[in-house]
Design brief:
The protein has eleven helices and 17 strands. The chain is α+β, with helices and mostly antiparallel strands and 449 residues long. The protein has two domains: 176 residues, D-Maltodextrin-Binding Protein, domain 2 (3-Layer(aba) Sandwich); 222 residues, Dipeptide-binding Protein, domain 3. The strands form six sheets. Strands 8-7-9-6-10 form a five-stranded mixed β-sheet. Strands 1-2-3 form a three-stranded antiparallel β-sheet, with no helix packed on it. Strand 1 and strand 2 form a beta hairpin. Helix 8 packs antiparallel against helix 9. The longest helix is centred in the C-terminal third of the chain and has 26 residues. It starts with 12 loop residues before the first strand and ends with a helix. About 12% of the residues have low confidence.
């Protein structure tokens, strides 16, 4: 279907070109239904496959905007430090919480064809106890995230769903005990069993470090982990479509509302499609409660139903919920979101990145009042963006054209000036009139003789 590679729509920008592996080019939609928008002439989603390359491109001014995906936390921290030292003038890098309560989920393959050890809840609890979630928050995310005790974070979108029950705290001794009880003792080489951990290391480069830590934690209790790092498309194919994985790190959003719990943890989500219940977890009791919550209009009753359902989820431990997620934005300050504050943060995953009101601060500003003829220099602004990461760059191409345009004309308000002698004449006239009236009144009241 050619429309899969040449889409059409009614948004502020229209599809122009896709050069696979390099960029996607969008151009301003001159027929956009919002008059005067967008302000930018072009957006180019540039494909940069590694965080170091993306970081270097931002430092050199080759790209102007990055949104979370593809940028490692360590590189974002490095950029922020350089800005603080005055080495990257006119740039800004900042961190902001996931509005939807997004978090890292180490999910288990619970399908019938999945690994036998993971079908035992004691093994899943043991893996949870073997993973030091606070260490992940420290080493991978520089303590800019929340190490999780339960299935939800303290983000406003999901905090009210906290079920009040926790997954096992970090306790390697407990993990060893549970694995022994489950019938997986250490072999002569100290190994209990082997397992694969599959990650998307392109869109989520920080998952590689997280996976390495998980591998080391599980090695301490006799579980050998093989890390399988894939690009984004391959990861979606293997994990969501083929269910060909043992464990995987998922960046799941959990709120607001019960919708995402239904998608990721119920029978309705068990489909071979991206962002679904690839784990295959299916508990009828959980399903019943979370489906009731979906149609409950009373918010407190809905929250209580979700809390009851999540208690079951935590007890079943279909995944280990490691850390909340903190998002990243990096921008060249030559571009502004002044007319849509917060637009830089409305990225993919929590909404839709809309650059219609982003403008180039060096562009001339004109408003309409009168029509004049003049010659202007047209400047094209090009925006470079990686899929999942918007990267803005500026290309200037002078094009002198004589056109009829409009310029602001501010007309002063003219206030007529009244000479001072006029005020004097009026005052005298008023005195005479008032005096005549008083004289007439007194004369009328004087008794006749």
């Amino acid at each position: 279907d050619p429309y899969n590679t040449r889409p059409i729509g009614t948004g502020p920008f229209k599809f122009k070109e896709w050069k696979k592996g390099e960029y996607i080019l969008l151009e301003r939609n001159e027929k956009y239904w919002k008059k005067g928008l967008p302000y930018l002439d072009r957006i180019i989603y540039k494909i940069i496959k590694t965080s170091p390359a993306l970081t270097l491109a931002f430092e050199k001014g080759e790209v102007d905007f990055i949104w979370t995906y593809g940028l490692a936390m360590s590189d974002a921290v490095s950029l922020q430090e350089k800005i603080g030292l005055g080495q990257l003038v006119g740039k800004r890098v900042w961190f902001f919480p996931s509005p939807g309560g997004s978090l890292d989920v180490v999910g288990f393959n619970l399908h019938p064809e999945g690994p036998a050890p993971l079908k035992d809840v004691r093994v899943r609890k043991a893996i949870a106890a073997a993973i030091d979630r606070k260490k992940i928050a420290e080493v991978v995310y520089f303590n800019r995230v929340e190490a999780l005790d339960t299935v939800v974070s303290s983000a406003p979108a999901v905090a009210r769903y906290n079920p009040g029950v926790n997954q096992p705290a970090y306790d390697p001794a407990l993990a060893e005990k549970l694995l022994d009880e489950a019938g997986y003792p250490r072999g002569s080489d100290g190994t209990r069993f082997k397992i694969r951990l599959m990650i998307d290391s392109v869109s989520y480069p920080f998952y590689l470090k997280e996976a390495e830590l998980i591998r080391d934690f599980l090695a301490q209790v006799g579980i050998v982990v093989e890390i399988v790092a894939l690009d984004t498309a391959a990861w979606h194919e293997r994990v969501f479509k083929n269910w060909d994985f043992d464990m995987s790190i998922f960046p799941f959003v959990h709120g607001p509302g019960p919708t995402y719990f239904i998608r990721y943890y119920t029978e309705r989500g068990i489909v071979r499609a991206s962002w679904s219940n690839a784990m295959g977890y299916n508990n009828p009791e959980f399903n019943e409660l979370i489906f009731k919550a979906e149609y409950e209009i009373n918010k407190e009753k809905e929250a209580e139903l979700v809390r009851q359902a999540l208690k079951i989820l935590v007890e079943d431990q279909p995944a280990v919920w490691t850390c909340s997620r903190t998002f990243i934005a990096a921008v060249n300050l030559d571009f502004s979101d002044e007319f849509d504050l917060g637009a830089w943060e409305h990225g993919m995953g929590t909404g839709y990145l809309n650059l219609e009101k982003i403008y180039w601060v060096k562009a001339p500003i004109r408003t309409e009042i009168i029509t004049v003829e003049k010659t202007i220099e047209k400047t094209e602004v090009t925006t470079l963006v990686k899929p999942g990461t918007t990267v803005v760059s500026t290309m200037v191409r002078p094009e002198v054209t004589t056109i009829v345009t409009t310029q602001p004309t501010i007309m002063p308000v003219e206030v007529p000036v009244v000479p001072e002698w006029v005020y004097a004449v009026v005052a005298v006239a008023v005195v005479i009139v008032v005096g005549s009236i008083l004289f007439a009144i007194r004369r009328a009241r004087k008794p006749k003789t």
